Amino acid sequence: MEYNLSELKKKKVINVMDGKDLGKISDMLISFPDGKITAMITPGKKNSFFGGNELIISVKCIERIGDDAILVKLCEPPKIGEVEISDEE
Predict the structure, then answer these.
(1) Which of 16, 55, 75, 84 is the most exposed place for a label (fewest CB within 10 A)?
(2) What is the arrangement of strands in the sheet containing 21-24, beginning at the earlier edge strand?
(3) 51 within some domain
(4) Using one digit for the tens of pLDDT, what is the confidence trace for 62-81?
(5) Would 85 be classed as within a structural domain?
(6) Domain around 16
(7) According to the model, what pLDDT value does residue 79 have?
(8) Is residue 80 part of a domain?
(9) pLDDT of amino acid 5
(10) Dist CA 78 CA 80 (whole Å)
């Protein structure tokens, strides 16, 4: 199945482990020269003094892409600005 970024940006990212809404995709990480998408970026939580902290979630964590949401499986919350790595392939 193929999606373009504008379609994916409209979908909510939901963690199936705790049901939290992680926001919508703001950007993607692409490896070079392979041209493969390695991670998706969501804005994360915003606080009153600083801008939001981005969450970088590996595409290996994606469980399903539905009509309205992208379901991801994160056992622990990802560290802000770091890629969530999964041993499964």
Answers:
(1) 75
(2) 21-24, 12-15, 69-72, 62-65
(3) yes
(4) 999 999 999 999 866 555 55
(5) no
(6) 5-72
(7) 54
(8) no
(9) 86
(10) 6
| Residue whose token pair is 């909510």 | 12
Q: For residue range 5-47, what is the model confidence (pLDDT) as tens digits?
A: 889 999 999 999 888 898 999 999 999 999 898 999 988 766 5
Cβ neighbours of residue 15 closer than 8 Å, sequence gap 6 or more: 22, 72, 73, 74
Cβ count near 78 (within 10 Å): 22
Query: Residue 27: which CATH number?
Result: 2.30.30.240
What DSSP line would sit under 16-84, residue for residue? TTT--EEEE--EEEE-TTT--EEEEEE-----SSS-PPPEEEEGGGEEEE-SSEEEE--SSPPPBTSB-
The number of folded domains in the chain is 1
CA–CA separation, 25 vs 12, rounded Å? 7
User: Does the residue 19 lie in any domain?
Assistant: yes
